[in-house]
Amino acid sequence: MTKKTTFSLAFAVSAAALLAGCGGAQNASREQIRAVGSSTVYPFAKVIADSLAKSNAAFKSPIIESTGTGAGMKLFCAGVGVSHPDIANASRRMKKSEYEDCAKNGVDKIVEVQVGLDGIAFAEAKGGLGMKLTQADVYKALAANPYGKPNTAKTWKDVNPAYPAEPILVYGPPSTSGTRDALKELILMKGCDANAEMKALKDSDKDKHEAICGEVRSDGAYVDAGENDNLIVQKLEANPKAVGVFGFSYLEENSDKLEGLSMNGVQPTYAAITDFSYPGARPLFIYVKAAHLDAIKGLKEFIAEWAKHWGKDGLLAKQGMVVAPDDVLAKSNTAATAFTLMDPSSLK
Predict the structure, then answer these.
(1) Domain co-membership, 242 together with 108
(2) pLDDT by residue (tens digit) across 40-50?
(3) How far apart are the first and last CA of the chain?
(4) At what angle do helices 69-76 and 96-104 cross, to 10 degrees?
(5) What is the predicted pLDDT for the residue at 19?
(6) How far apart are CA 231 and CA 47, in angstroms?
(7) Are 42 and 250 in contact (CB under 8 A)?
(8) Are residues 189 and 66 located together in one domain of the fold?
(9) What would you measure as the largest C-alpha separation in the chain, in angstroms?
(10) CA 145, CA 209: separation in Å to the nearest integer?
């Protein structure tokens, strides 16, 4: 027996023992994979879970929970063992602070796999206001304190004379969502930094800059619609003058009812997300606990199932996921088969 084989067997045995110990007597084993996290990744994860269950009768369909990326990371990072999730689905990359929380709880060996691309889409019901949005105007409409002063804009016309004099009403994700993080980082912060004074503030006082540029107003103009993106779709159908914020896949899935609003002159389309010309384009990830790979039945096969279907002709593309570029897919395939550990030094 080689040293490598001996090490692998020892790791598998110790991982299984650790899982049983952490789970307690009541949860000494678990028959199903458990994944938590992003509402954007949720429908894709469900497709992969169903595919695994259909292709291999030995595995029960994994449990997929839509908790939002931030809340999912907290659950994922809480510890190792059967009482903790195996996977965190994320519509943004893991933060450095989240990895540090993970490491404190013994979750220091993590496999990061980018499964595809998505875009944070602004949409409305067909026949809606038809605005041509910019990052700066969205910032002025939704920021709690645009440029350091309380937001007094009541209508879209208050934001930009070219817009209609209709009340600002935007349904969007909660603070625990990766889509909310994308709204902040890709739209609000960029719109804020279009102002030279705000851009300079980023260097002189980072915390103040983040508060002014990233905090969303709470006076009713922006409505936290929870982690159910389908609820936002229903709200838009009921009120054609409202705007919704969610993942591109939900816009594409409901293209018979909704239409996307352009951002900086670019429509949220598959092609524009693929080449990142659309300002709201973003990568999608799954994070896997290495300590669970040999101890949780079917976990390796579940990761392999993602790799089978994230290509151009796969189930994920049919579901509305934007396929990642070839170089990204090559890296993802390596991560999904060799289970290479993430290098936390590159996290922000």
Answers:
(1) no
(2) 999 999 999 99
(3) 42
(4) 30
(5) 52
(6) 20
(7) no
(8) no
(9) 76
(10) 11
Both structure tokens of 103: 């490491």
Domain that holds residue 195: 119-281
- Residue 29 pLDDT exceeds 80: no
Which residues 6+ apart lie within 8 Å of 57 measured at CB?
A: none
As a whole-number percent, the residues of the chain with pLDDT over 90 amount to 84
Helix (H, G, I), strand (E, B) or coil at 254: coil
Q: What is the dihedral of CA 33, 299, 345, 117, to 10 degrees?
A: -80
Q: Rounded to whole angstroms, what are the CA distances from 311 to 38, 117, 147, 216, 326? A: 21, 12, 43, 36, 9
Q: What is the CATH number of the domain that holds 182?
A: 3.40.190.10
In terms of Cα–Cα distance, which of 272, 262, 248 is closest to 129?
262
In three-state secondary structure terms, 284 is strand
CB 253 within 8 A of CB 246: no
64 is written with which tokens?
């997929």
Going by C-alpha positions, the residue among 90, 76, 74 that lies closest to residue 39 is 90
E strands present in the chain = 34-37, 63-64, 87-90, 110-125, 170-172, 222-224, 243-247, 258-260, 281-289
> Which residue from 90, 259, 77 is spatially nearest to 182, judged by alpha carbons?
90
227, 238, 117, 301: CA torsion to nearest 10: 50
